[in-house]
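Weekly puzzle thread! Below is a chain. First person to post its structure in token form gets bragging rights.
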Amino acid sequence: QDCVGPAIPMVWFGVANNFAAFAFMPIIALGTMNCKTGDHGGGFADHSAIGGFIVDFLFLGVFVFNALWLQEKIVRHTLIGQLGFLKRFTFFDQDISGVSPWLWYRIMQVLTVLNLLNVWTNAEVLGRVLATFQYCPEARSWISESWEEALKNTLFAKVFPASNSILVLSTVFYMPIFLQPVFAFMFATTTDPEVGYKVGEYPDQKHDNYWTMWQQTDGAQVDHNSVVQVLSALISYEAVNFADYDRNRRLMEQCCELAKGEMMWVEKYGKELQELHWGNESTEVPEAEMQQVLTSVDCDEASPDNEGPQEFYMGMSSDTMGSSRLRIRETYENHRFRIESLCKAVHEYYRAMQQEIHKKFLVKVVLVGGFQNALQTKVQITMFSLNYSLTGDVDVLFFVGVVGNLLTYLVSISDCFEFFCLCKTYFESDEQKMTNMLKNEHVWLRYKQYEIRARQKERLNMAYFSGIIFTVLYVVFWLYQVCNFVMIFVCESHMWNIGFPPSHGCTQVNRSAAVDGVANTTIPASAASANTTPASHALPPQWLLP
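Winning reply:
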């Protein structure tokens, strides 16, 4: 956290760059799409003219260039801190120690670009729907009729009546993507005046343990490294995140070992204090004197140079204050220092664990995997199915988008298993070890510190059980979408609803000769001509008109 301060503004620019892509790429696609000709209106609008595709691609190039440039700036501040914790250099669990650094970085750039292309295809799909419903009346009519026929008498249509409109459905499913910048703002924004962003340790600057809207003052564990890693995961900067999971696992192991070592010293000095001050190590500590000690240790303000409070010595009996005063003082200082070191180790363990929960589960699985990949994959499969059913042809852009989203979705499922491996280690061994250490009779803390640790455990428990429920639904939804995609090619109508066996889910769609007052045999010549050229953008969107 003392090295990555200058990367904070860069990662915020990355969030803004992604937000701009989410917001403006559908509008750009809307302005560059063309209506198609053919049976049933030709299906959804697309880049029939090469000029519109080039314009769209140039705008995408701007966003990609910005992302790669920002990723390089961020990596300069994060890479060294990660390499120090790596046992070996891996990529998808394969040892790549022989790969040159530049080749490794190029691989990371390719993965980042692929993630951005995934964002682009999601925006393109919404842009195609918007363009079709605005500029292509015949295609819009046939698509709307086919969708209503497919949903007729289904539970989904009864629960969500607005789903009868494919435009409303695709727009609503696109909106959860904007939760990503909202989460970034809540997680990383702080008004703490002590927070600074210089490289190195500065007495007047705070680089960790500050509060944000996501984590309030008591027990806040936000630090610069967490901000950079979590937000980089949100915007899919692979070169920044590539080794952070291994780093945090290694850090948690080191914290456990350090806590065990410090616990041995805490017990040693605690027993010595009992012998020196209370005369018998089995004697219970008087409550009044215990309260004096409890006020002397603060895990969040720990410093070995702080001098112990004089009230502690004022509470001692006069015979103990004699020749043993110096020894008691040294033993007390050593005891307090070891307690503070133990608390720091436990604190760092929970912070690393919490960072991985935010990054692996909340960001990569829920926000990116669920609210982006899962929902957009379903939308694209639906668009692909409707278009295939109407035209009889496989739309290449839809097909590539669906396959890419399914693969990205599958990769994000692996993040679920890494998250559960982390939780498994914590709940099976580390949790009990940490609890036993802090409950030891020789560990004297403020009551506030115990409350903070209890809240941290509650958050981890909640994340674990929420993760179980979400992961089950997440995996089942992926299997459903794979089945849906396959059945599109199996069904004669190329449209499928849930059924068992799957072949019983094929939907038969009866299309009328004229839909919404637009007959496929009586299209005016001027309208037919407009279907082969870029659509006129002078009129307001028809789907906005009353």
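Puzzle host: Confirmed. Bonus trivia for everyone else. The chain is about 65% helix and 0% strand.
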